[in-house]
Amino acid sequence: HAQYTYANQKQQQRTTAHFEMYRQFLLGDESPHAPYINYLKNQPRGRLINEWTTAGKRLLADILNHAHPFDEDEDGNGLPPQAFLKDYEEIWVKQCRGEDNELARAAFYQLTSRDEDTLMVPFYDMHNHSNDLKKLNTITSKPASKGKPFLMHSIKDIAPGEQILISYNRCHSGWADATYEDCASYSYYGTSQLFDIFGFVEDLPQLWSFRMDVGDGTRDDRMWDTLTFTLEASDDDDDDEDNDGIPFKVTFGDNYSENRNDEYPVEENIKYLGDHLVRLRMLETTMKEDDELMQTIPRYEWDMAWRYHEALVTAMSAAILASDFAEDGDGDAFGSEGKVDSRGLDSDDDDDDDDSEDDSEDEDSRDEL
Predict the structure, then answer these.
(1) Cα angle at 219 between 217 and 223, to 5 degrees?
(2) Contact 209, 228 (CB under 8 A)
(3) pLDDT along the chain (369 residues), means of 10
(4) DSSP state for residue 184 in the 8-state scheme
(5) Of 270, 244, 265, 231, nearest to 329 (Cα)?
(6) Using CA of residue 233, residue 239, residue 243, residue 244, what is the dihedral sign?
(7) What is the per-residue pLDDT for 220?
(8) Looking at residue 152, what DSSP letter applies?
(9) Is residue 126 within 8 Å of residue 367, measured between CB atoms?
């Protein structure tokens, strides 16, 4: 009952926030927050998945193996995010019964992509995301009640010209500091959910959760299981034998696992990942080289869909190689269709970081949403 009441309260808070944001957009120059509101109104559109074109959503649905772009994947055969974020029509038009126009749509997506648990915080919401402890340089503290300050602290010295970074999901279950308790927000999302909500692929470390049906494939024999793991760049001094030969460190389970050994993948988990890996590589050799298809999809959507495809391939390959079901070299990794080895993983983190920095203003910046 308490959980139900809490959920209703949160839903009511979010509904109120949506109507207030739309009211401020209507006020425009007359808003007491006019500079900030006008700044939000002038942000480019189309960066969030829910705002993608039909063709872009179709491409992503094919990558995820979903029957439809917003399919909830009841059969458990698709890849995460297995239920795309409920969109403008579902939440604003149907649930909130709000006015349906372009201004309302803009207000809706600015709130869903920039709010901190229904709070809109100017300046703070312009910063980019990272959970890389070598880069992350701030931590925030939300007010416990209305009228109290929203605090943003540096956690290390920040040099002149250095980018200020925040974490969009510091409360996720695989966070490096398992004792971190200041989690009174929705910042528990994993990598796939960040992509769903904010439209970008976060850099390492990443948290992945793959929900799958490990039964016999019939509706009468459903057996649901979730494989969760964190993916980090391997430390040069890392002696963990489980990750030998892999340019990434894979840790199965999360901070709430009572026994990490119980979270280690079983054969059915690895077969699920392996079969999808074969399918994704097939798509890469067919659809990605289809020039006619590429011409039907905006370049940003095309590039971001394939970037997420690459992230999936990397994460699943690393998990397979870190399991007990991978063999050395070109050995059969999952006992069915196809093989995987560490040659498919890019270990050049410096190049990846450079690309992330170059593209950050376009892809993972709230300032651009």
Answers:
(1) 65
(2) yes
(3) 59 88 96 95 88 91 78 65 72 90 93 83 90 90 81 92 91 75 68 91 94 71 84 70 68 80 87 94 92 95 96 96 70 42 43 41 45
(4) -
(5) 244
(6) positive
(7) 63
(8) E
(9) yes
Task: Return d(Cα 352, Cα 358) in angstroms, integer.
Answer: 10
**What does the alpha-carbon distance between residue 2 and residue 8 come to, in Å, rounded to a whole number?**
10
**How is residue 36 written in tokens?**
């900030």
User: The tokens 């659809």 sit on which residue?
Assistant: 287
Cα gap 314→320, rounded to integer Å: 10
- Residues 116/125, Cβ–Cβ less than 8 Å: yes
On the CB side of 266, CA atoms within 13 Å amount to: 9
Among candidate residues 102, 103, 68, 94, the one with its CA nearest the CA of residue 83? 68
Residue 327, by phi and psi: left (phi above 0), alpha (psi -120 to 50) or beta? beta
Phi-psi region of 93 (alpha: psi -120 to 50; beta: other; left: phi over 0): alpha
Among 84, 187, 85, 180, CA closest to 129: 187
What are the tokens at 290? 């289809």
Q: Determine the Cα–Cα distance for residues 368 and 358; give it in Å rounded to an integer.
A: 14
Both tokens of 274, joined, read: 């392996």
Show the tokens assigned to 204: 């390492």
Q: Does residue 136 contact residue 180 with C-beta atoms inside 8 Å?
A: no
CA nearest to 270, candidates 320, 322, 344: 320
Report the pLDDT value the prediction gives residue 149, as an integer from 0 to 100. 87
Contact yes or no for 246/322 (Cβ under 8 A): yes
Calpha distance 210→191 (Å, rounded): 11
Q: Are strands 128-129 and 165-166 parallel, antiparallel or unpaired?
A: parallel
Structure tokens at 96: 């909130």
